[in-house]
Amino acid sequence: MQMDARLSRMLHVLIHMGRGDRPLTSKDAAVMLQTNAVVVRRTMAGLREAGHVTSVKGHGGGWSLAKPLDEITMLDIYRALGEPRLFLIGPASENPDCLVEREVNASLESAFDEARELLLARLGKVSLADIARGFEERFAALGS
Amino acid sequence: MQMDARLSRMLHVLIHMGRGDRPLTSKDAAVMLQTNAVVVRRTMAGLREAGHVTSVKGHGGGWSLAKPLDEITMLDIYRALGEPRLFLIGPASENPDCLVEREVNASLESAFDEARELLLARLGKVSLADIARGFEERFAALGS
DNA sequence: TCATATGCAACCTAATACGTTACATGATAA
DNA sequence: TTATCATGTAACGTATTAGGTTGCATATGA
Fold first, then answer.
1. pTM flag (> 0.85)
2. Which positions on strand C lie below 7 Å from a protein C-beta?
3. Which of A16, A133, B62, B80 has the fewest Cβ atoms within 10 Å of its own Cβ atom?
């Protein structure tokens, strides 16, 4: 499979939403993300269920933030997406009969679990407002 | 795609090779790994190129370790497999025009890079002899 | 009423480890 | 020398899953 870009895409579009004043339509988001409006709705559905965004049908409708960006972390969005699998690499089988294989699995899982823990902790420390701030700084530096 | 089990499988089979005295045929390895002999050869080819194992054709042939297990780390095998992609999650595009997207990518990459670094460091600290030792201990505990 | 927007089902596509078949090549034993 | 055993490799099929696409129902505002 290709990369799972849902987390990246949602962060991207949420920060744009934080900078706009009107609801963002799936169509406009699709242009930003260079994809299809259905893909946007499908992915955003998880964020709505998690309470991070709201959606309104009809004229003037679209997607809006349900809370300010500084109350949303990268980890929140990862969770709202259903905590998709992080690693492409894994054990051949979950509960093998072979004791050697069990030992190999234990060694690998230990290393991967530690990496996962670190990664999620890091995602939890960065709010979308932090990322937006980083953007503002780069943008300002560009104009100078 | 399903999990990439090549690392797990290679560690498994290498430790078995360390416990045997004769070359291990692809067929026998395939039974151990519950797969096909061609898959074994395909995957082991990388380990041979990296100098971790040797292969001999014909009668009495098969696969042998090129060095003792305490001179091979989990990281060595990961590298010999061509350093396959670790993470399933990634950016939507590598060099986006949108500055917001660049900022998102930078934040994500920073977190993922740190996790990768930790993971590879951990893989580099564990030799196959360490895993074999763990197995021996569990095995001995089982018999008591 | 009509244009606009989400909601959602149903299907196709791409990428890639893994599985499978077929055949060539090399090595050993009879 | 010949049969057997083993690796080497090409070629093609399979399964999984994010993403893409079409179609239609539903709700909202002008």
1. yes
2. 3-10, 14-22, 25-29
3. A133
